[in-house]
Amino acid sequence: MAGRVRCLTQSRWALSHPRNSGRGPTLADQVEKERLKALGDKIEAAKKATQPKRSEKEDHHTAVQTGWRMVIELVAGILIGFGIGFGLDTLFGTMPIFLVLFILLGFIAGVRTMLRTAKELQEEHAAKVANDERK
C-alpha cells in the first residue's frame, strides 16, 4: 500500500500504517526527531546572532529609572513619616513633637531602602560582569 496518504500528525500515521500498528516509534521517527532538534538548534543560534545588543541609550534609561526609583523610595518614607507624625500630633494635641520625630524616622527608613536598592543593583551588576567574563 505505497499509495497510502500520510496523516497530518506523526502519531496518527504510525497507528494507521500497517507495518507499525501500535509498536512505538520507528527508526525514521527517530531520525526525523534528530533533524528537528538540529533545526531548532540552528534557529536558536540564528536568533542569538541577530539579537540587537543593548545600546548606551537603553543603559541610560535604565539608570534614570533606577534614580527615580530611589528618589520615590526616599520621598515615600518621608511622606509616610509625615502622615503618621501629623496624625499622632493631632490625636494627642502635641503638634510639632511627633511630626518632627516621624519625619526623621521616615527619612532614615527611606535612606535605608535606597541603600538596599543600591546594594541589589551592585550585586546584579557584579553577577552580570562575572557572567560576561565566563563567555
Fraction of residues in helix: over 70%
How much of the sequence lies in strands comes to under 5%
Number of domains: 2
Count of discrete alpha- or pi-helical segments spanning 4 or more residues: 4
What radius of gyration results from the CA coordinates?
32 Å
Structural class: mainly alpha
How would you state the average pLDDT, rounded? 82
| N→C terminal distance | 54 Å
* Outline type: elongated
Low-confidence stretches: 1-5
- Largest sheet, described in full? none
Order of helices and strands: HHHH
Structure summary, number of beta strands? 0
Description:
This protein is 80% helix and 0% strand. It folds into 2 domains: 10-50; 56-134. It has 4 helices and no strands. The radius of gyration is 32 Å and the shape is elongated. The chain is mostly helical. The longest helix is centred in the C-terminal third of the chain and has 40 residues, at 95-134. The model is unreliable at 1-5 (pLDDT under 50). It starts with 9 loop residues before the first helix and ends with a helix.
